[in-house]
Amino acid sequence: MRILIVDDDFTSRKILQKMLAQYGSVDVATDGEEGVAAFHSALKEGEAYDLITMDIIMPNMDGQKCLQEIRQIEKERGVDPKDAVKVIMVSGLSNNEALHDAFFLGAATSYITKPISKEVLLNEMSSLGLVLS
């Protein structure tokens, strides 16, 4: 499984990386701009990501905008929505506006609030059909 973690917080990136490393290859990006670049590069190389975890509030480009750009890239490349990358938005925000924007504007697959437990993350990944081996 190929995984991309997009989060500006060093500690959050390291925690997620440690949780996910045993399930596949993990790349990291420190903001939305890097996230879009990594996603685009992976597609060009023919090694698309299976999962992206993404923070909402980040400098340069926030998670909502990053997710919208990723979905646009998929649309332009003719990716069927059922084959789109699974994106779990990860944030300390739990307000309705953030949830609405993540799901309806960016087509997020899921949403988890921080602090993240490994059990919750793995359960969410499993419910999305991602193989945890």
TrEMBL record:
The modification 4-aspartylphosphate is found at residue 55. It comes from the Bacteria. The keyword Metal-binding does not apply. Keywords: Phosphoprotein. InterPro entries: 2C_system_His_kinase, CheY-like_superfamily, Sig_transdc_resp-reg_receiver. Residues 2-129 form the Response regulatory domain. One of its GO terms (biological process) is phosphorelay signal transduction system. This is Two-component system, chemotaxis family, response regulator CheY. It comes from Desulfovibrio litoralis DSM 11393. The lineage of its organism: Bacteria, Pseudomonadati, Thermodesulfobacteriota, Desulfovibrionia, Desulfovibrionales.
